[in-house]
Specification:
By secondary structure, this protein is mainly alpha-helical. It is built from 21 helices and 4 strands.
Length: about 475
């Protein structure tokens, strides 16, 4: 039965031209984060290693990983896999062991998911429901959105020079307002592509301010940095339009295993495996969130074992090309929530576009010219919808029960407060820390009956005793 809240349900396929536009919109929603991960890893290494991670290769790897995920989940889960920020520190550490060290890290992370998938396939998912009920998942999903707010605001107020800029804030807010208006007030076609319209509006306004800034010699008005495009087309050659990404496997074959060694293998394992266990909890939260949006229980169909298998194998396959382990993207989930397009064919086409666009040099160069303030404005809507989805789950929880109140409080306070646990090279993120503490609090408080349940039991016992005396 069709989900009436969706414009296109999972099995439905929009007309090709529309689908192409919707897929391009998904691409724009996920591309900034996907391209940022390799950039941050390169900055983190500071040129101290032979490894240089490639943006186009990471984009190609995200497309490959998503296609693997779609196959593993039998085309029933419309999630896009992109470069995971959780693995930035492990990637920086593994870079000292060469390209093979980076790929081996993704293999270890992927194998953690595969092993968990096998365990869940044998033991079922009932324990997941008990361990992470709505009182846990709801605030965790909300926390994922809320934790990204700092990133959105930071991008919103930043000019091309990286400094606080009121003009950048204006451009970002206009991008957000245009996106909201297109999504709510636009026609049916416009409501399906609010992010494209919002980005184009922000880019156009930023271009106007930048042109004025160049003409008047005022750097403060220069919102857009066109240098990636200028450098790409100077000189003008075939390479300016088409080029093969610097794939990770090429670097592996050139370097061999000379930088790794047996000690390196163990070090890489310690860098990646613990982080994969942490991201496992976010994997469940993302799929619970998407399931609530599209009206399906993805934990049971296609099954948590299949989504984990897809995530694990997708990370391994994607890293073979792009180096970055992948993870489910909240930006893509937010896009589904706002547009109502849950079609798996759109996600598939998005992955194919990633493969094609990674060879098209001007596209990657153009994406790098989109002002961070415009991305920040768009992310207000994307991250906000993730947070609201989690709050919607909490509505089903009885917060008059102090047990639930303390669990939700623990998750939100620790997560928003940013409690991070560092164990040497292993770091447990604030979201994972909050989730772990929330689970512990919930398990402790669930022993025995709540005060309300005890009163109800006493009332039933009293009524039963009264009836016995009558007879």
């Amino acid at each position: 039965m069709k989900n009436t809240n969706l414009t296109y349900d999972v099995e439905e396929t929009p007309p090709f031209r529309k689908n192409l536009v919707y897929a391009f919109q998904q691409l724009l929603a996920i591309i900034a984060a996907t391209l940022l991960v390799p950039t941050l890893v390169n900055v983190g290494t500071g040129g101290s290693t032979t490894v240089t991670m490639s943006q186009p290769a990471a984009l190609f790897g995200a497309g490959v990983g998503t296609l693997v995920y779609i196959l593993c989940t039998k085309r029933r889960s419309p999630i896009f896999l992109g470069s995971s920020f959780a693995f930035i520190n492990p990637l920086i550490g593994a870079a000292s062991f060469g390209y093979l060290g980076i790929f081996l890290g993704a293999v270890f992370a992927g194998l953690v998911y595969v092993i968990l998938a096998i365990i869940i396939r044998m033991a079922g998912t009932r324990w997941v429901d008990r361990l992470m009920p709505p009182v846990i998942i709801g605030p965790t999903v909300a926390l994922i959105g809320l934790s990204l707010c700092t990133s959105a605001v930071s991008n919103l107020q930043t000019s091309q020079s990286g400094e606080y800029n009121l003009i950048a804030i204006l451009v970002g807010i206009i991008s957000f307002l245009v996106t909201v208006y297109a999504s709510v007030k636009g026609g049916r076609g416009v409501r399906m592509i609010p992010f494209i319209i919002g980005i184009l509006a922000g880019y156009a306004l930023g271009s106007v301010f930048t042109a004025i800034g160049w003409a008047a010699g005022i750097d403060y008005l220069k919102i857009i940095d066109y240098s990636p495009l200028v450098e790409n087309f100077s000189p003008l050659t075939l390479h300016s339009f088409l080029s093969v990404p610097d794939f990770t496997f090429v670097g592996m074959f050139k370097e061999g295993a000379s930088q790794l060694g047996s000690t390196g293998v163990f070090n890489v394992l310690l860098l990646f495996a613990p982080v994969a266990m942490v991201v496992f909890a976010e994997h469940i939260a993302d799929h619970e969130n998407l399931g609530s949006i599209i009206g399906r229980d993805l934990i049971r169909d296609p099954g948590l074992h299949r989504t984990l298998l897809g995530d694990g194998l997708g990370s391994i396959a994607g890293s073979f090309f792009g180096g970055c382990p992948n993870t489910s993207y909240g930006e893509a989930i937010g896009c589904v929530a706002i547009t109502g397009d849950a079609s798996i064919s759109t996600i598939t086409l998005t992955a194919i576009l990633c493969l094609l666009m990674s060879f098209f040099t001007p596209f990657v160069a153009f994406v790098n010219t989109i002002p961070t303030c415009v991305i920040g404005g768009i992310c207000i809507a994307l991250y906000g919808f993730i947070a609201v989805s989690g709050l919607r789950m909490i509505q089903t929880v009885d917060l008059n029960d102090n047990r639930n109140l303390f669990v939700v409080s623990a998750v939100l306070v620790l997560g928003i407060g940013g409690l991070v646990l560092n164990f040497g090279a292993v770091q447990i993120s604030s979201i994972a820390t909050a989730l772990i503490v929330g689970i512990i609090v919930n398990l402790l408080l669930r022993k025995g009956k709540s005060p309300a349940e005890e009163r109800e039991a006493e009332e039933k016992k009293y009524e039963s005793d009264g009836q016995d005396k009558l007879f």
